[in-house]
Amino acid sequence: MNHLKNPWRTLIEAAATSPSPHNAQPWKVRIIDETQSELFIDRKRALPDEDTTGCFMICAMGIFCEALAGIAATYGLELSAEYFEPSFDNELNLFAKLNLSKANEANAPFPRELYSKRKTSRLPNVKKSVADNLLNRFKTIKCATGQQLSVVSDAETIHWMMNLNLETTFIDMNNGPYRKEFHNWVRTNPRESAERRDGLDARCMNLRPIEFWMNANFYWMYRIPVISTFIKHWYRFRMGHIQHFGVISGSFWDSQSAMAAGKYLLKLWMEMAREDVHIHPFGNLVTNREARNALEKKLGIENIWLVFRMGYTKEPPGSYRLDVSEIIID
Ligand SMILES: Cc1cc2nc3c(=O)[nH]c(=O)nc-3n(C[C@H](O)[C@H](O)[C@H](O)COP(=O)(O)O)c2cc1C
């Protein structure tokens, strides 16, 4: 069909660089033949106590599909998919049947190298705002299901959002099931990180391993007013000056919408990566219902499903990924 010796393996290896919450990488692929494969959600890699609706995992699956299609296009291939209602009932749940064919025209949305260049950056922003014309370009990225990017750049609102993020983190970390699940994805030992190749590696969190470990284990300190005030100041100091927050709103809380939202998110993230603009999502501002309500009221925006700090940073460290042999199943 194509000059590629093993097309699925090649595409999966490149799409494995896709972002997912907690770097959980919930995707598995069964190759049927050169043109057909099946994509599954791996329940072991879902986050039922943080992502209680499953929509963020479905969003990640949407991201992975979008990456596969975009990378296939760089090889002159077209990826089509038949989607199934996402489920977490079984260990592996069929998400889509995928088909590869020769593309009629060259229409790759992004160069192949950009997929591995895109990274989350939790490093402090350098002192440079994102130009208005770029922000406007990001805001007009098209999406069939009407997602909308809004940008917050005023210092008072940014300060309020940071405070809300820290207070929400303190509340969430004092919620037993939430904390236990989060712990499973914390990687503070460099050897364990390199071996497991998933999860939140301290190296990528802009935290020393001991800081990340304390943050995950000494959550009860957040309840002590003087200490929590100190921790808030320390976090703010570590994050540095924030010029912009991005806020994505639109339909999200059902499986079809979440998948389409994932496809949109990858497009937006890739456009930003092309311009060296980095993002750092703040998931708990939307997974925590009270925080989301407060945010929607403050910003006057409905249906917010993702909030992120955005701007220029130094080159962030790259996080590990599962080996392609762990993604492909028999
Ligand atoms: C839907 C979604 C939500 C995310 N939420 C957070 C978050 O709350 N905090 C955070 O630090 N990173 C968040 N991330 C970033 C992931 O942790 C990151 O993509 C993953 O660790 C892989 O790293 P990379 O993006 O540098 O390749 C999120 C990513 C996605 C796709």
Tell me what you see in this structure.
With 330 residues, the chain is of the alpha+beta class. The protein has two domains: 7-118, NADH Oxidase, CATH 3.40.109; 132-311, 3-Layer(aba) Sandwich (NADH Oxidase). The protein is 43% helix and 18% strand. The protein has helices spanning 7-15, 55-74, 112-117, 132-139, 155-173, 176-184, 190-196, 209-217, 225-239, 255-274, 284-287, 289-299, 324-327; strands at 27-31, 36-42, 77-83, 92-102, 148-152, 186-187, 200-201, 244-249, 278-281, 304-311, 328-329. The strands form three sheets. It has a five-stranded mixed beta sheet with strand order 3-4-2-1-11. Strands 5-8-10-9 form a four-stranded antiparallel beta sheet, with helices on both faces. β3 (77-83) and β4 (92-102) form a beta hairpin. α1 crosses α2, α5 packs across α9 (225-239) and α5 packs antiparallel against α12. The radius of gyration is 20 Å and the shape is globular. The model has no long low-confidence stretch (mean pLDDT 95). It binds flavin mononucleotide. Residues 19-23, 56, 59-60, 119-120, 122, 280-283, 319 line the site of flavin mononucleotide. Flavin mononucleotide is lined by residues 19-23, 56, 59-60, 119-120, 122, 280-283, 319.
